[in-house]
Write a structure and sequence with these properties.
71 residues, mainly beta, two-stranded antiparallel sheet
């Protein structure tokens, strides 16, 4: 049986992690010099916290607020 030799520095750093994906501008739309927001802000948390769009509702991931969409 052949044992693999490992570098001491590489072993000290820990396991190799994959590259992080860059987020696209999913929440903003840029048109010329103006920026518009695609999603609504949470009414409980205030500005800066977006509501996530789902199939049947929009919800806040921070406080759990939800608005149901009409059919």
């Amino acid at each position: 049986m052949v044992e693999k030799k490992t570098d001491a520095k590489a072993a000290a750093k820990g396991p190799v992690k994959g590259k992080k994906k860059k987020l696209k501008n999913a929440l903003y739309e840029i048109k010329g010099d103006s920026v518009s927001r695609k999603n609504k802000f949470c009414p409980k948390c205030g500005a800066g916290v977006f509501l996530a769009n789902h199939k049947d509702r929009v919800s806040c991931g921070k406080c759990g607020y939800a608005e149901w969409k009409q059919k």
